[in-house]
Design brief:
The chain has about 260 residues and is an alpha/beta fold. Helices cover about 45% and strands about 10% of the residues. The protein has helices at about 15, 35-55, 75-90, 105-115, 115-125, 130-140, 145-150, 160-170, 175-180, 185, 215-225, 245, and strands at about 65, 95-100, 190, 195-200, 230-235, 255. α2 packs across α3 (about 75-90), α3 packs parallel to α4 and α6 crosses α7 (about 145-150). It is globular and about 70 Å long.
């Protein structure tokens, strides 16, 4: 935006498309996707975009920022889809939510990160693996919650269930923690997909933007480069956010 003064509004994108490479095209899809052919087409397009992005950016590029002219253009959906595509290609992949104002990626990946109740009870020694397997079958047959089933079977007490639920709902560490001194590995959480990890927005909000400087952003990304094969950062839109112009210069490439 500062370099090219002609780029002031979303409609001005065509003015600079002459010198920006087109990586690919994605089909418009409904929220409730029931057509397997349309789904397969979307998956193929994302994989093709990922391949062309790797070719265009070079083998040494690891950090890719995804942004858009304005909100609602689909950048978060693309960032998540690219993350799954890279992870499926056996790359140790980190998704970063750097859209501090919107936080759309955090909302999308929350169900992929939150630990399951049975896992919490098992790891804390409250139940055994055999009790968990039995309760899972019973809960499925009765179409009830696993916690309620374990409680009814006498495997856990009401106090133990309440404690496990509070642990499940505890907000995880995130972007702000990593900036304020918590190690990156302690702030990153694994998802339910192999090779895919996520750094959520966490407690970061617009009031914390003062903590983010170019030097802080570069340091954070350098740590990510050392620990992950690929880093995809979802940030705010170019027009109307402070995050995109802050993190884009520190990345290897911008989509």
């Amino acid at each position: 935006g500062f370099v090219d003064r002609r780029f002031r509004m979303p409609a001005d994108v065509h003015l600079v498309m002459q010198r920006i490479p087109m990586l690919g095209m994605l089909p418009g899809l409904p929220k409730n996707l029931s057509d397997p052919e349309a789904a397969a087409l979307a998956v193929s397009c994302v994989h093709q975009l990922r391949n062309r992005l790797q070719i265009a950016a070079g083998d040494q590029s690891k950090v890719f920022v995804v942004t858009s002219p304005t909100r609602g253009d689909g950048k978060t959906s693309l960032a998540l889809a690219l993350g799954l595509s890279f992870a499926g290609a056996h790359a140790r992949k980190l998704l970063v939510d750097f859209d501090i104002t919107g936080g759309g990626l955090t909302n999308r990946i929350e169900p992929m990160i939150r630990p399951r109740l049975g896992q919490i009870l098992l790891e804390s020694g409250r139940i055994t693996w055999a009790q968990l397997e039995e309760a899972l079958v019973a809960a499925h047959n009765a179409k009830s919650q696993i916690g309620q089933t374990l409680l009814e079977k006498g495997s856990i007490t009401a106090a133990e269930l309440e404690e496990a639920l509070s642990l499940q709902m505890r907000p995880p560490a995130g972007l702000l923690d990593a900036v304020l001194g918590t190690s990156l590995e302690d702030s990153v959480k694994p998802t339910r997909f192999p090779n895919l990890f996520a750094l959520q927005r966490g407690a970061a909000g617009p009031e914390h933007l003062g903590h983010f400087s170019p030097a802080v952003v570069r340091k954070l990304l350098e740590q990510a480069r050392k620990n992950y094969d690929v880093v995809v950062v979802d940030t705010g839109p170019v027009l109307g956010s402070l995050e995109a112009p802050l993190i884009a210069p520190a990345a290897d490439a911008v989509v």
